Amino acid sequence: MREKSVNPIFRIDVWVLLIYFLLLFFGWVSLCGASHNIGDVDFLSWDSRTGKQLAWIGCAIGLGSVIMMIEDRYYEILADVFYWFMVILLFITPFIAHDVKGSRSWLPLGPVSLQPAEFAKCATALVLAKLINQYGFTLNKWQNLLRAAIVVLIPLVLIIMQKETGSALVYCSFSLMFYREGMPGCILFCAVAAVLYFVVGIGYSLTPLPGTLGDVGEFAVLNIIWIFVVGMIKIYLPRQPEHVSRLSLIGLGVNVLAWSFSALIAPFDISWALLGFNAFVAAYLGWMWAGQRLSQWFLIFLFSIGSIGFLYLSDFALNNVLKGYQRTRVCVLLGIEEDRDAAYNVNQSKIAIGSGGLMGKGFMNGTQTKLDYVPEQDTDFIFCTVGEEEGFVGASAVLLLFLALILRLLFLAERQATVFGRVFGYCVLSILLFHVFINIGMVTGLAPVIGIPLPFFSYGGSSLWGFTFLLFIFLRIDAGRKRR
Amino acid sequence: MPKDYSFEKRKYIIGGVAVAIIALYIVRIFTLQLLSDDYRQRADSNAFRKEVLFPARGQISDRNGFLMVYNEPSYNITVVMQDQHGIDTLDFCQTVGITREEYIARMADIKDSEKHPNYSRNTPQLFMSQIPATEFSKIREKLFRFNGFAAEKRTVRCYAGPWAAHVLGDVGEVSQADIDSDSYYKSGDYIGKLGIERSYEKVLRGEKGKRIMLRDVHGRTKGHYQDGKYDVAPVAGRNLTLGMDIELQKLAERLLEGKLGAIVAIEPSTGEILCMASSPTYDPRKMVGRDRGKHHLELADDPMRPLLNRAIMGCYPPGSTFKTSQGLIGLQEGAIQPNTAFPCAHGFNYKGLHLGCHGHASPMPIIPALGTSCNAFFCWNLMRMFGNRAKYPTVQDAMTRWKDHLVRMGFGYKLGIDLPGEKRGMIPNAAYYDKAYKGSWNALTVISISIGQGEVTATPLQIANLCATIANRGYYYIPHVVRSIQGEHIDTLYTRRHYTMVDEQWYAYIVAGMRKAVVGGTCSGANIPGYEVCGKTGTAQNRGADHSAFMGFAPMDKPRIAVAVYVENGGFGAHFGVPLGKLIMEQYLNGKLSEASLRQAEDFQNKRINYGTRVR
């Protein structure tokens, strides 16, 4: 049965709509603060960025209204067309785009430029939702996971080819949705473990370990690996606790003996001892698998080998694969390198936020932003303006507003009757969370400087429209949910 | 494989991750914004350029409004080390007129943290100072080419002529000690170093202003912070009017040319210094600008010690000028009566002690004794006083009484003139002699103090002040060079009468004695037609030739000027002291010198006293 009498606009979720407008408003106000220079600026003038942004906002609202009026089933039907259109667009963009700071991602459209990468997210999310919506499709099957991964990887690789590493990384956020839809948690755990190995291994690679000739990074990671392995045996093979105590005892013994020998008798790099122990653990796992034929042993064996391999490969990748500026950004973030230019942005950004205090310096009184000390202050570093001019109160209010939006989307996603609706909802909130996570982490010096915008705040039409697409398509799906 | 395909519980984990991330960031901005003030300070130091606005220093004029010291623009070149890069050093050196070596040395000097503990790469540092406007005009055209260099407009002191260097003093760059003791001063500021520039520093300097300018990331100025709400305009220093008469000062300096000594003239009715000359002197115009240090060193090394203001720093035996004070004490203490006469047989003879005197009638009372400057009379006077056991139980008591009188007349301690470096002179007390003679001494032992010799010393200022006290018949105002501070009255310290312990009635005899000295005694050369001049010579013995001294005032009634002249090794008081004192009084009373006096002044200007070659 279809009810044609109720206009879906009246069934829209008012909370999301309210937060959307609030964020747009605060975003535009912050942009006024960031682009305000000494002397009078006409905020509404088309020549100023605030005027242009106002036009973008107007278009975005119009876009949202149009999205609300289209029948929701078309989004599902046209998802593939949209996706492949975006893939082709992403493919041809580097050939016709002009070079903007080394990246070829801007498609010129008359007086304005658009970034197809921002819209490709939406297309990818739709296709993923459609894929997972198929009857009996679950992500805990490897072949299904692979299909989903390919859908994500095609635009990701194309965007990397445009040299927009930041936008490409956003596609990692789909893993959060995959997790919700049944991707085994161990994959997420592996990803977290990889980040941990990288941060500890590289971050402390130049800190000498007292009493030895080795460094703290390698020593710590090798210890973390066998402790993870022992932990996994305990969780996945709860009926065989003897292996846990045995390996733990040997691991501790190797640590104590190697360190004592190095400190008291002959100094050497005790990482070799730990590497030997990890090799022993891997062999032990392999032997147990050979004996018991339990797949758990094999998977833990793979984890052990993979972890050791990752540790040494990441070091190699950092020094030989990454480009100079990328390497510098990573090293500056991990605190092992002091680079003036790379550290400057983050430093000035921290000064801007830190100088805001509790209540901030007041609208348009931020000296750091007004006097151009913060680079990219109206795009990627817009949050500095919030921190400086509105202080802790304003900045945490913005953060809480984002949290409210994400949690509300979570609630809406869970109440969807269709898998399509739920998956798409999780895609929207995952992308949003990832943007906030990386952007705020970057301006507060907790994450590396990856150039991705803060949703609804950063200047620019592509990002704003991209998020409007995501949000309103989901709101449209949500508004139509009761008819099924 | 898990059996539950809905995985619904995972929404809590995802929601938890979102909450955790936002909570982490709120904690992060909390630590950045609220736990430390460090970031705010760094933002301020980024954005604010605090510029100091220097006030004009007060001007100085003489009692008739003649402008003696004023300001002219000069320029300092400053450098911000951080911005100073990529400049053509050779071109820069040529433009400002220094060598490459000097440039390198100056840059190293600025960065030297020992000399400049407050050095910062971000703030302007003084590179060159006091470039005159004429030289600066050609630098100005090119300065913009040199990144980091800027000019700041300052003023430089200008002097109307080579006069009154000791009184006016000079200004120079502040020392580290000045900066440490007064937070007003910053490196590169100027401060009064000598004379009234130093003693009236706080009046003359005014108050610095400031303005806070916003500076963007490229170092460009972007207007006033908060539209100048926190800016403060500088307050110009106040102008000083001196009691000095510039014509009198010029004459005094002329007369002392080629001699060592001092002339001090005081207006008795106010205590204002009419002139204060010390010889040798120097040209204050040399003590400004970049060569100040060099010239200052030359003067400091000169064996004739031109930097010494002998008028207030020279401690000389006052000689016979001191006898006037002795007469006053004797009369007040009842040691003598106005008609008490003492014999003089070419001097004072007692128990084998002989203190010579020149030939004159004998015996005689106080008035002619002053007129002829009889040594014996004043020796007997002191003997009588110190020997009066009925009044003073011990000689120490008498000595204490004697000392108290002199201290109240302005001797023995600093008078408190508004110039730095004044010396106190020496009036011995009982304890001093107890120590010197181990308690065994009497009037005879210390008899030379009665004629202004022996242990007694005084500055020419103290002698002039004694003269002013007599002219006033019993009181003085603390002598001071500054008459008014931009219309305001000066410190009440200088407008309060200080009475001596001698009754007014006794002054009549001393005035009469000093008048007698002019009309028929030792200083007949001091007579000025039309005025009743009073005077007293002094011939002070010392290791070399006698010092020639004179003090006098005129007119006798309603005196307008009291003067003291002291010429080192000038012989008898009548040789130099009397004529110089007379010329000073005549110039001041008449506003000019007569034909004869002009010739006399020229004579004395050209007279030279041979001091040999002194080596320090």
Structural class of chain A: mainly alpha
The total beta strand count of chain A reads 2
Distance between the termini of chain A: 8 Å
Question: Would you tell me the overall average pLDDT of chain A?
Answer: 86
Major sheet description of chain A: 2 strands, antiparallel
Helix run count of chain A:
18
Helix content of chain A: 55-70%
Query: Compute the gyration radius of chain A: what is it?
Result: 26 Å
Range of helix content of chain B = 25-40%
What's the total helix number of chain B?
21
Describe the model:
The complex is a heterodimer of chains A (484) and B (616). By secondary structure, chain A is an all-alpha fold. Chain A contains 18 helices and two strands. Chain A has helices spanning 14-35, 49-69, 72-96, 116-133, 142-161, 165-170, 174-180, 185-203, 216-236, 241-265, 271-292, 295-320, 324-333, 340-354, 367-370, 382-414, 419-443, 461-479; strands at residues 107-109, 112-114. A two-stranded antiparallel ribbon of chain A has the order 1-2. In chain A, helix 3 (72-96) crosses helix 5 (142-161) and helix 9 packs antiparallel against helix 12. Chain A is globular. The relative contact order of chain A is 0.14. In chain B, helix 10 (246-255) runs antiparallel to helix 20, helix 13 packs parallel to helix 15 (375-386) and helix 13 (323-333) packs antiparallel against helix 19. The interface between A and B is large, with 49 and 41 residues.
